[in-house]
Amino acid sequence: MSKSSALRDALKQSPNNLSLLLLYGRACLEELHLDEAREVFARALDVDPDQTDAQLGIAKVLFLEGNNSGAAVRAERVIFLEPNNAQAHLLLSRVYLSEGDRAKALDHFDRAAQIDGTMSDPALERELGRTTRDARKTAPAPAPEPASQETQPAGNADQDEFFDDPFDEPPFDWRPETFYAPGDPERNRVTFADVGGMEELKEEIRLKITYPLQFPDLYKAYGRKTGGGILIYGPPGCGKTLILRAVAGEVPCNYLAVGLHEIFDPYFGSTERNLHQIFETARANAPCVLVFDDLDSLAQDRRQIRESQMRNLVNQFLHEMDGIRSDNQRILVIGATNQPWALDPAFRRPGRFDQAIFVPPPDAPARAQIIELLAKDKPIADFDAAALIEATNGFSGADLKWVFDRAAELALSAAIHTGHPVPITLELLLAVAKAHTPTTQTWFEGMHTHAQKQDGPDSIFNDMRKFLNAPSNSKKER
Ligand code: ATP
């Protein structure tokens, strides 16, 4: 039984399941069943007209049929909806190459490589005589939206002079990859609704950036300002990265997520300059949320650093975050780490990351939400989630996702081998969960050692201690 026929059977059970439709469409494409692929992608578009994978699927069908103009129109539409869709640029590169327009083909290939450095299309690379690596060196990254007049900070000439800028010539070869202006369709894909639990953190983010923009007069009346710094920390897999992505879909202002590869540079001094340029971009586009995932790699404790270059970077970061800088006021900086003990304590001073929020493994209501999110669009037999919620105490969101993915794999494999659709059942999910040890356990064990060394009323670990001391979070349950 082929992959596509197993998926077709599964679809009979869940005909409007978008994920299955896309999987089946791709399988049909691989097996060159072009008519079937077109029909399936069209069904996916009936379910969600802006589904870009389905649009791209149809574009690929048209290209394989030799309809270059039809393929180009569809691929352009995908790029309109998602400017950074590497696959659409890659397809356009192929289309232009077969039309004999080598310059445009190279242009789109370079764009695809710039967006996704891991993509690979050896045949196209051979034909173009260019590798993904070469293309990444050549192609300009997508430019940020220019700041609108209203969103520019008022600017204070005296202040600007006062704060000496060590980087007076701007490094214009640097541009952030993930800069989203409000209204960018790409940024609304994940919102707070996709994140189970974390209500305190969600509200804190709204208080610091969303509400001040919605109710500026009220904020003025209460003398409250926008922005600041929030540090989020906790065991791996509990949704820190997910919530950082969701902030983009939630806040009504510019959003800039910093990739570590955009900062680190082998040339002496360039790393600090890149970091400075990132903050400058955020200030020029304020109000803006500036997001640093894996903060520990940038904000390390200077006492543990040997290389002077790294120490300079930490000093630069502290300087950029300095609370005295009036031009930081409409910037909310959010940093996430699962190694809070590795951060330089100076980052916790007022005006920097002065607020730390612990993101624990999801509690029962949050697990219920995550389970509901994970069960959505999957061929799952009706089930009462209570037993699964109970059985997954101490699991991170990533652990829960693993349980669902593994159960889906097992059900799919059974469907392929029996030739009958096999739904994911509660029994299967419970069996998978039972065999899994939550990945958060080792983190808590290591955390105890670090927490003992860092006592004090404003220790970063206070929230975590409270969590551990709560009766419902006894060792047995974790
Ligand atoms: P790390 O510290 O290792 O970077 P993390 O805390 O950033 O981990 P994520 O990468 O955000 O964890 O989570 C991994 C995946 O687990 C997410 O992509 C999502 O599928 C799932 N997940 C985790 N937490 C949640 C949550 N609260 N709600 C919904 N899904 C979640």
Give a quick rundown of the structure.
The protein is of the alpha/beta class. It has 21 helices and six strands.
Question: What does this molecule look like?
Answer:
- The chain folds into 4 domains: 3-137, Serine Threonine Protein Phosphatase 5, Tetratricopeptide repeat (Alpha Horseshoe); 178-358, P-loop containing nucleotide triphosphate hydrolases (Rossmann fold); 364-437, Helicase, Ruva Protein, domain 3, CATH 1.10.8.60; 440-476, no CATH class.
- The longest helix is centred in the last third of the chain and has 22 residues, at 397-418.
- It starts with a helix and ends in a 9-residue tail after the last helix.
- Mean pLDDT is 81; it is low at 141-164 and 169-174.
- The chain has 21 helices and 6 strands.
- It is 51% helix and 6% strand.
- Helix 18 crosses helix 19 (426-434).
- The protein has a 6-stranded mixed β-sheet, sandwiched between helices.
- The relative contact order is 0.09.
- It is an alpha/beta fold.
What is the secondary structure topology, with strand pairs?
Elements: H1 3-13, H2 18-30, H3 34-47, H4 52-64, H5 68-81, H6 86-98, H7 102-115, H8 122-128, H9 132-138, H10 157-162, E1 178-180, H11 199-214, H12 216-221, E2 228-233, H13 240-250, E3 254-258, H14 270-284, E4 288-292, H15 308-321, E5 331-337, E6 355-358, H16 364-375, H17 386-391, H18 397-418, H19 426-434, H20 440-453, H21 462-469
Helix pairs in contact: 1-2, 2-3, 2-4, 3-4, 4-5, 4-6, 5-6, 6-7, 7-9, 14-15, 16-18, 18-19
